[in-house]
Each structure stands twice: as C-alpha cells, then as structure tokens.
Design a protein that fits this description.
It holds the Pfam family MFS_1. The protein has about 425 residues and is an all-alpha fold. The protein contains 19 helices and no strands.
Length: about 425
C-alpha cells in the first residue's frame, strides 16, 4: 500500500509510485545482468582453469562455446517464465528468475578447476550457464513487460530504457569489481582463485534482490487482464495468432543483438587478443565506454517518446550497416587506449538506437495476455542463435585466419534489421499500452 504524502497531488503520488516500482524492478535487472556478465568479464582469468591449454585463443574459444550454449536456454526461459508471468503475474516471475540466477552463480563460484576434478569441471560450468541462461531468458521478457506496463503514459520509452541502463550497469559492476581485484590481487592470484569472488558477490546480491522483489506492486494492466481472460493468458496457442508480430520481434532483434554483443562484450577480447592492448587498460577502456553508453539510454528513450521509435531504430540500422566494418578494422590495428575508447564508444552510441527502446517496441506489439511470452520467446530464440554465437563465430574466424569476415557478418546482420525498421509501423501511438 502506498501512503499519500500531505499536500501531494494524486498525479505526484502516482509518479512516485511508478518511480518506486521502476527502481525495484531495475535493481533486480541490474543484479541479474551483473551475474550474467561476470562470466564474460572474468573469462580471461578462469578460461584455463576449465579448459587447460597453452593456446590462449583456444581457451577463449572453450569458454566462448559455454557462453554460447548458455544462450540456448534463453528461449526455454523466455517461454517458461514468460508463460509464468502471463499466468501468475510479473512480480512472481521476477522473483523466480533472480532465484535461478543466484543458484547458477553459486555453482560457478564453488566448482573446482579441471586440474582438481577433471572433465566434471567444464560440465559443472556448463550446467551453471544453462541455469543462468534460463534465468536471463525469463528476466528479459518479464522485466521488459513489467517496466512498460507500470510506466507513465507518454514516458514509456524513457522508463523502459532503464532496462538497458541496468543491463549496462550490471556489466559496469562486473568490470568495476574486476578493476578493484586487479588493483589488490596479483595476476596469479586472480587466475588461481580471485575470479571466484565475482560470483560469490553475485550470489549474495541475487538473494538480496529476491527478497526486495517480493515487495513490488503487480502491474495494473496485468491485474485487469487476469480478471478478464483467465484461461488464455501466456499460451502458445494464443501467441501463434500473432505471426506478424513474432516475425517483427525476430527482425528487430537480429542486428541489434549481434551489434550489442560485438561492441559491449567481444570488444574486450578483441582489444586484448587482436589489438594487443594490455588487459587492465582494456578493462578501463570498456568500463568508461559502457558508462557513457548507460547514461545515453534514457536520453534516447525520452527522445523516442517525442519523435517515435522508428527514427532511432533507423539511426542504428544505417549506422551499424555502414560503420561496423571501418570501426572494427581501425580498432584491430590501434595500440592507443584512448583511441580504442572512442572507437568502442562510437559503436555503442550507434547500438543505443536499438538498445534504448527495443524492450518497449516489442512490448507495444502484443496485448497484455501474451505480452511476456510474446516479447520473450521470439527474442530469446533470436538472441540464442545470433547474439550468443557472435563471440564464438568471431573467435573461430580468428583461429582460421579470417577475422575480418566477422566484421562483414555483423554489418550484414544489421542490414537485415534495417530492412525491417524501414518497413514497420510506428508503435508508440497504436499500442494497447496507450489504449489503457
């Protein structure tokens, strides 16, 4: 129950309630993505613990494969937790997703190395990533749905953009902790056991959020829909009645997810392994670039409330298609950390045209009764196939001596999405969210 402050108008009280729900939903999203990206951030330290080899690229390839396999669970998570959210509520699904993430992080933290338990080590690592993939698959769809439904009309782009603010924030926390550990531990200590600290922190943070999320308000849109259509919510039979919307989610996501994972995660390994910039400098470069990108998300989101969603998507599509190859080419040859920062930032600014509003655009495509599963399942399938394999493809092409082919692959994926952006309708004024 919300207590009305003396002298406060109903509109002010309502806005405070919206902000409170967005904050509680977002902090959970922050921790979820911290746990997810801790794996990517600390790969360079634990790769050889689970995949012992003298070839650094081969070890990275092993952990990249596990990273990619973790994505295969995201469609299952999008379906299972999306269905759960549509049938039993957004709040309950968000509590469940963060509980699963806590379990996955704990398993990584306590799993012994390959030298101790042999093949069981990479198997347990894979199991943990599968659990985390299930969690993240459900978290995206449910948090995107929840933030879009509780947001103030006319500000949905702004409030929904905080999903990627917290997504980037989770990555920043992982990189920030890495910088702290790099400052207080030696390289040998980090490689031997220090990387486990990141997953212990993630476990306790997720358990704390699990408790916090229990106090969130359920969205009003869900409560109304639950009373009107008790037997149709969250079913695949209801979802397949919207084939055009499903196809749009796939097309919207394809280029965006490949571009995002290229500049936000793979660039760390790329700058270290191709540009040969020292590891600590690369961490600082990525931290600073992602910090700026996180700040830009609500700016772009608010802009979409004013001019619409399509102009920002077109900005990403055109920029990503034309500039990915030159940006990656120059990035691979730079030895200057400052130059590397501006190159990574340029890529993230372009990608912000997608990341800042992709959640609200997808939520605006579906009615309330199937919004969580409608957003989650086709999105997670696309991310699993294209986003989750981006780093794996990049590492494989590098190992084969054809690294530059990956640059063209990314640009081609963005081009496919650009075609979708150019032909789709504007969603901000026609959504059921605005009709409520």
């Amino acid at each position: 129950m919300t207590t009305r402050l003396s002298g406060a108008t109903p509109a002010a009280v309502s806005e405070k309630r919206v902000i409170g729900n967005v904050l509680r939903g977002s902090i959970g999203n922050l921790v979820e993505w911290y746990d997810w990206y801790a794996y990517a951030a600390f790969t360079t330290y634990f790769a050889k613990s689970f995949f012992p080899t003298s070839d650094t690229t081969a070890a990275f390839l092993g952990t990249a494969a596990v990273f990619a396999v973790g994505f295969l669970m995201r469609p299952l998570g999008g379906w299972m937790l999306g269905r759960f959210a549509d049938r039993f509520g957004r709040r309950s699904a968000l509590v469940l997703s963060v509980t699963l993430m806590a379990g996955g992080s704990l398993l990584i933290a306590v799993t012994p190395s390959y030298h101790t338990i042999g093949i069981a080590a990479p198997i347990l690592l894979l199991t943990a990533r599968l659990i985390q993939g299930l969690s993240v698959g459900g978290e995206y769809s449910t948090s995107a749905t929840y933030l879009s439904e509780v947001a103030t009309p006319g500000k949905r782009g702004f409030y929904s953009s905080f999903q990627y603010v917290t997504l980037y924030g989770g990555q920043l926390l992982a990189l920030g902790l890495q910088l702290i550990l790099q400052a207080i531990l030696t390289e040998q200590q980090l490689t031997s056991w220090g990387w486990r600290i990141a997953f212990v922190v993630g476990t306790f943070a997720a358990l704390t959020v699990m408790w916090l999320r229990r106090g969130m308000d359920e969205s009003e849109s869900y409560r109304r829909e639950a009373a009107e259509t008790p037997g149709e919510r969250g079913t695949l039979r209801a979802l397949i009645k919207y084939p055009k919307e499903i196809a749009l989610v796939v097309g919207l996501t394809l280029g965006g997810t490949v571009g995002f994972y290229t500049f936000a995660t793979y660039s760390q390994k790329f700058l270290e392994n191709t540009a040969h910039i020292p590891r600590r400098q690369v961490t600082i470069v990525l931290f600073c670039a992602i910090l700026v990108a996180a700040v830009l998300q609500p700016v772009f989101g608010r802009l979409s409330d004013r001019i619409g969603r399509r102009p920002l998507l077109l900005f990403f599509g055109i920029g990503g298609t034309l500039l990915t190859v030159p940006l990656m080419t120059v990035m691979g040859s730079t030895r200057n950390p400052v130059g590397a920062f501006f190159l990574v930032l340029a890529g993230l600014v372009i990608v912000a045209g997608y990341t800042s509003i992709n959640a609200i655009v997808k939520a605006e495509l579906f009615p309330t009764k199937i919004r969580a599963i409608g957003v989650g399942l086709p999105y997670a399938l696309t991310v699993a196939i294209f986003g989750g394999t981006a780093e794996l493809i990049a590492q494989a092409l590098k190992s084969a001596g054809h690294e530059t082919v990956f640059f063209w692959y990314v640009a081609g994926c963005v081009l496919v999405s650009l075609i979708v952006y150019g032909t789709m309708r504007e969603t901000s004024k026609t959504s059921e969210l605005e009709k409520r």
